[in-house]
Structure formats: C-alpha cells, structure tokens
C-alpha cells in the first residue's frame, strides 16, 4: 500500500485509444478521478462518453494507452477482468434490472454469487440499503411494478450492494419522463454524500454543475476541456465547448 492511498487517483486513463472498424472513437483520452469525487462527462452524442465508460469497466478492450484502478493497470493483459469488474459498479440508461427477479433478488444476486455472502446476510444488507435510500417498500416488487425512476434507483442500489470502489453512471436519466428525473438525481446526490467515487456521463447540465467536482468536455474522442464546474460552465476556454454549452443549456 502506497502512502498516498488517500489521494491517489481511483481511476486514471492515459492516452486511451479505441476504434470500431475504421472509426476512431477515443483518440487519446487522459483522465484522472480522485477518491470521493464526482466527474461529469459532457459532450455531444457520439463524442465517446459511453465508450470511455465501457473501456473503464473493461467491457471494451482498448487499442492503445492504459487504464489504472487504484494504481493497478487493468488494461494489462494479465489483469483479472472479473476481479476488476467486481470493484466497479455500472448503471446504464435503461433495462438494468433482471425482470424475472424481485428488487431484493436483483440486489442480492451479486453479493451472494460473486462475493459469497449468505442469503440472510445479503438480504439484511440489501433491505437496510433500500430503506436508507427510500426504496424499502419496493424490496419484494418485480421491476415492472416500479416506475422508471424507481427502477433506476433500484439499479443504483444494486450497483452499490457490492461496495464498489468506483461507480460509473451512463445517462441514467435519459430514458425517464422528466418528472422522474429528480428522484434519481436526488439519489445520486446522496450517494455522493456517502463519499462514493463516481464518473457520470450526463446531459443534465444543471445537475453536472451542482454535483461534479470535475467536468470533462468530450469532443470527437478527446477530453477537449476539463476543470471545475465553475470554470467549464462559467468561463469555457475552448470555442467548441462554448458552442456546445450554448446549444444545450
Ligand atoms: P456517446 O456516449 O458520447 O454518445 P459513444 O461512445 O456511444 O458516444 O459513441 C461514440 C462513437 O462510437 C459513435 O460514433 C458510435 O457510433 C461509435 N460506436 C460506439 N460503440 C460502437 C460499436 N460497438 N461499434 C461501432 N461503433 C460504435
Ligand atoms: Mg452514450
């Protein structure tokens, strides 16, 4: 254990490149995510936000560059991809929950199967987490009985149940009716208060501005501009960032 474990980046990307066929999607991405911070990834559709998150979770293999989780190179071919994924929670835009399992069963699946917790222990932990995050009454419901907002909240709870080192959220409110967005973002706020390290791809600019410690503007596969929310939203340096923000805000 190094002495700077308290402040050393949880996630670090160095010159990450990724193509699909002939299309170069990540053209040398550098990123550093400090412990207990929230990084918001903003940028136009197709700029590479999802690909970046998928590379971080080893759902995509990078072509070049390196990714480190707690200082350990996870893009090393000898790294144990399953072990890495156990340390990283992911929630996507939609369809995160298994429809044939109750909320409680969804949440206890990984703690039981992957982490070897007893059923009783996993269920007690899950009920406590659901209770704390305002979903206690939904534990025994099937996902199709929940609103989209409740489903996304349950998906976040499921990702947290294995106590990940890092949580990746990819446009988790994009498929929701506008009136349901607030409750999901509210939960993300609480998760931040608990100190979770997160990387969030989002089109919710007001939310990014409020919750993020660091904002990264992706443009055509590179982090074109990064900084505090005040800097990136308030006084963007790059002309392309200014144009993007004018269009979207
Ligand atoms: P964003 O999340 O910012 O909208 P993506 O990472 O989803 O951007 O996509 C970036 C580019 O990569 C897009 O042009 C998209 O079409 C392309 N892309 C993403 N995934 C694949 C894939 N599996 N195969 C081919 N092209 C892909
Ligand atoms: Mg995307």
UniProtKB/TrEMBL annotation:
Membrane topology of the entry: Peripheral membrane protein
Subcellular location: Cell membrane
The protein, known as: ABC transporter, ATP-binding protein (Cluster 3, basic aa/glutamine/opines)
Entry's family note: Belongs to the ABC transporter superfamily.
Coiled coil: none
Domain ABC transporter: 11-245
Main location group: membrane
GO molecular function, one term: ATP binding
PANTHER family per record: AMINO ACID IMPORT ATP-BINDING PROTEIN, GLUTAMATE_ASPARTATE IMPORT ATP-BINDING PROTEIN GLTL
Keywords from the named record: Amino-acid transport, ATP-binding, Cell membrane, Membrane, Nucleotide-binding, Transport
